[in-house]
Amino acid sequence: MLKESANSKHRKYGNRFNEPLKLFSFYLFIVGGRLTYEVLYSNLSSALPSITTLNRLIDEGSKIVEGVPRFLELKNYLIKKNYKLQVFIGEDQTAIIRRIYYDPKINEMVGFVLPVSEKTAFPITKKFSVCSLADIKNAFDNEEMSKNAYVYMPQPLHDKSPAFCLVIFGRGNSFKLNKSEITIFGFSSDADPRCLKAMRIQSGLLSSTSLENKDSPYRPYFQCKYDIHSPVYIQDAVHIGTKMKTRLLKPNVVLPMGRFFVSKDFIEKLIQTYPKNQHFLYMTYLKSQDKMNFQAIDKMTANCVTDLLQELPGSEAFFLDIGESG
């Protein structure tokens, strides 16, 4: 098998492997362990797929089904990456085209709003299984099609770690990860009113309970329900930064601060005055067409930029606005 599948040119990348060899490689990896497989891979040049390829094939084998949370896959993902079982969850929703399609792999119609279980607060799957034409007709006559898609993406607490898709569904639901032994440090969302309402309710912000709780040690500075052992609810830094950039770049918006003003003119003057190797900015960062250009606000709030701003006369307000945001 190895002789037939070995690549004749012994290339390090771009090799192709047939299915029997992939299964054989999985068997070697599971039975022999990672160290044994690495030794075999190093000595059998181009004959076996790399460990990275095996991990990618494992990930491709997991299917995302609407409304089914992937707790076990998330835990395995964190363990495989040697991350702590601690995440920060980001949630978002987007409008979708209302349509229904049939998934032959799970024998279900996808696109209808899934009902919610009162016990688990999760969507009830297998609701729209297709056993006859009557099931299809009944669903189209009595059920509602999804208008928005919600996605929950746990983010490991490691620098530059990719997020993981936990669950996707056609309506918002609450859930917990207690049984998965994964600690949730907080939730973040954009300005979607449904997500913000859920976050406001969970945090107790501006509720009768928070306003009446005058014995809280955090009053009057914190009006929401605060517990160091519970998750926090915030808007994610990407949306905060990009919204600040969008408002800053609007020509008809004036941001006064005392006797000074916040204006993008200071950034333009900084780019024209100092060499690029001191601030690493481009004039394209000041264009408002790309509202989600987070790299622009990330560069404008860098320490090298705020240091140079202090040397420009009249930029005190802009320095405070950008410097505090960074």
From TrEMBL:
<protein>
    <submittedName>
        <fullName>Uncharacterized protein</fullName>
    </submittedName>
</protein>
